[in-house]
Amino acid sequence: MARADKYMHTIPCGGTLPRRTAMGFGGNSIQYNMGGHTGSGGLGTIVSPSGGGSGTLPAGTGSSTAHFRDRQEGTGTNEMDDLIHLPGPLTEDAVMRTLHNRFNDGKYFTNVGPILLSVNPYHDVGNPLTLSSTRSVPLAPQLRKIVQEAVRQQAETGYPQAIILSGTSGSGKTHCSMLLLRQLFAVAGGGPETDAFKHLAAAFTVLRSLGSAKTTTNSESSRIGQFIEVQVTDGALYRTKIHCYFLDQTRVIRPLPNEKNYHIFYQMLAGLNADECARLNLEGYSPANLRYLQHGDIRQDEQEDAARFQAWKACLGILGIPFLDVVRVLAAVLLLGNVQFIDGQGLEVEVVGETELNAVANLLGVPSAQLFRGLTTRTHNARGQLIKSVCDANMSNMTRDCLAKALYCRTVATIVRRANSLKRLGSTLGTLSSDSNESVHNQAEVASQHASTIGGNAGSKSMAALNNAVRHATDGFIGILDMFGFEEPRPAQLEHLCINLCAETMQHFYNTHIFKSSVESCREEGIICDTEVDYVDNVPCIDLISSLRTGLLSMLDAECSVRGTAESYVAKIKVQHRNSARLEQRALEPYDPRLFAIRHFAGRVEYDTTDFLDTNRDVVPDDLVSVFYKHTCNFGFATHLFGTELKALYAQENGPRGLSFRIAPTSHTDLLNGDEPVSTLTQDFHTRLDNLLRTLVHARPHFVRCIRSNTAEKGGMFDRGAVVRQIRALQVLETVNLMASGFPHRMRFKQFTARYRMLAPFRLLRRCEEKALEDCKVILDFALENPPELDGSVTLSWAPGKRHIFLSEGIRQHLERLRTEVRMKSATLIQATWRGWNLRKRLGTIRRTHDIQLMGGALLSVNKASGARTGNVSHANANNTGTATRPRPQPIAGTPPPDPNEKCDSKIIAQTCTLFGLDLERPPPVPPSRSYTVTGNSKLGYPQTRIMKMNFPEDPAAVGLGEQLRKGEAVTVTGASHRRGHLIVEHNGISLHVPFQYMELVKTIAPVPSGAGNAPSGATVPPPPTATAVNI
């Protein structure tokens, strides 16, 4: 237990904070004491995703000490959207009752200050959880506030933002991540109509089928962790990149009882037609007779799987990945499981399932005999002498399984690289980034080298400045982390140990950021707080698993190097950690020397080490890799899967020489010219986890804590026992107490005055760094002149430190509410003033025009009545009248003429034009707009019929239009506009440029014919039949 020091002191600026007690754990009274929490990663920004809280905020006196009052009658706990406003003492029962009532009321998101709790209601069980499948799910306002806050802070500070989702398996992390990504595109990426969104949606559809599987507790369990990195520049989405963490390799060859293999295998068997099955040698096969599938749950909904497979196939095409290449590898993986090796009469092994072996060789494009030798022989390097040996049946079967895992893992990695390398030329919005080898930093370096070769020193200096600007613009990102949730299967494998280590690490990151940093910050700056929080520190469990020399993973690597056994490994770790409270020492029932148990932060898990050593070695021999060399393999995709290893293998000598490579893909620089690969499975995972933590440490985190409502995946069922265990594991009670009564936020004096200076009269602020603390006190005094009414025991406390001002969550919400009100009033005043001035200006013009028209009409009537003037004179008067009524032309918008006094070096202009391929005589051509819209899997041509979702424009008179497109009205779209995000609408003979968000597409629209793009210029294309748009 990590406990903050307990103080009883009166804060100089605000009085004494009220002590809060809790009776949630066994009825014992717990006193809390907590310090301040850095809300902005050291930059001083403290605004929470809650955006200043809900409408009704706490009540109190003018001082910084808050008094309590009971809630008004008629207000239920289901209406309380922030747990810090709970009335009465803070107890576990009060938190549970509030969450249960909100759950029954259909409110599944609840704030704890800036932290969001999400309860999974299981209303859409079976949803594949992609960007497309969650498109119809309404976005919760709490998630929208998190995204808006992250975008705002990234735009204002340039500091990276990370939205971290955590919780047990099945708690809805992936569902929330898709909703957050949708909202991020709506705020900064142009919405779901953009090509970037469609490409990313296709990528997630493909990866969900490849990386999801059914477990005992979750039918859509993500077996691939994802960190979605979104670069946002000047409030607009610049690029996206998906970082994947693939762990569960053993599932490919051996799913656990009552679980399933990856979804794609079942979907492929249900979705392939007869011709495709024949080409892939899968005729007559089903989950019941395929060895890699039959040991798990073989039940499936063939109709649903077939539909998902067709969507998966279409999305592969969007990503530009050949469908047949991928399914050839997947079919080979399935058929490999039916190839069995048994010991023969002589030295060589015999094959059971020679038909499947020949089919696998045919699918992978290699000779059958060579594949057999690669699976059953091994090359050894004995003192420089290469010796070939024949493997026994057991070793050959293990090599076969290694090949199956390697083919699957490398196919997934190839698809991820392809999704990250998609680029659309001519589009700067939402371009998908490539992998690290093609990042914008490397592109800038290449450009810099190019500039130095053609432009000399001046060019290199200018490009160096450009490089620095590009780096500065792209350093800040918004990341969405959807990592593995805590799992407790029976029996648990090595992959589950790594998954639970990841969950422990994310919990430790939360504890450090929320609890530990608050305590240390208050202690360093002399802030005294009488709120104490007892939180569970899980560092001992992390050290038990991942300590450098004595951790379970390090000892496993040592056991692999000495060719040990599972029994010896378990015996050693029990001796080494005999004093650890996290590793159970008592004998498990029934006793098995290969089992051990760990008490994790979320529960106790038993691990079976039978396959620990083989899984951790994670190797495939070079005899097998050499089979896919381009001289013997005619399937380029398979050769590409082992491209790095083949390049290292044939760089010096031709042929195997006793090397071992990783099952997972390895970069060329990480290969080791020895008998073992550079790292094991656990070492590689631990390295990647450390790199992820380094990224998160430098980002401003926004936490979303996910909770599963029950363990049976039943919609609308709230299992209090399951929820309370998660509440305790996630330490929600401690978080509520800190946010309500402690100092969870701190800001530097200068940043505080910069954000809240509009709350105090401008004349009273000193506006200098030496007087920043005095300005903070002035702002807070004016903010507390009319304090809000407080619910529960929320405080309005604040305290000045040495370098920071420390704030409670209550006063932070109050300051944000006041700031929002002032800004709204100011914006309203500015708009009203401008609109009044503009209307008065236009009114004068309208009156003058009206008077002129009346005068012209009077003259015409006089001339016609008198007849004194000739026809020529009448014609001249008519011309004069027309000139008077013609509206005055607007000046042409454009860049002002250059200042003749400014001198510009012609050499620099020429070098810049040469560098970027520009012509001084003519501007670069404008790329042609496409003549269709992509909706789902269909290309829909123009014209289109759309329905207005809102009025456009809001004020027709202000923009000079006599008509307004009203909500619900059907309009005709004739093409894409040159304006960003606009479409051309023809209405009553007038062309309008309307943003696409104002309209929705009618479902039945004519698609672009497949041959329209290649039709000759004089050909007549018949009108296409109507088709229904299909979502990707």
From TrEMBL:
Lineage of the species this protein comes from: Eukaryota, Metazoa, Ecdysozoa, Arthropoda, Hexapoda
Entries under SUPFAM superfamilies matching the protein: P-loop containing nucleoside triphosphate hydrolases
GO terms assigned for molecular function: actin filament binding; ATP binding; cytoskeletal motor activity
GO BP terms: actin filament organization
SMART domains per record: MYSc (SM00242)
Alphabetized InterPro entries for the sequence: IQ_motif_EF-hand-BS, Kinesin_motor_dom_sf, Myosin_head_motor_dom-like, MYSc_Myo20, P-loop_NTPase
Residue ranges, compositional bias (Polar residues): 872-884
Statement: the UniProt record of this protein carries the keyword ATP-binding: yes
Keyword Nucleotide-binding: yes
Family: Belongs to the TRAFAC class myosin-kinesin ATPase superfamily. Myosin family.
Pfam families: IQ (PF00612), Myosin_head (PF00063)
Record's keyword terms, sorted: Actin-binding, ATP-binding, Motor protein, Myosin, Nucleotide-binding
Positions of the UniProt region annotated as Disordered: 48-82, 872-902, 919-938, 1012-1032
Protein name: Uncharacterized protein
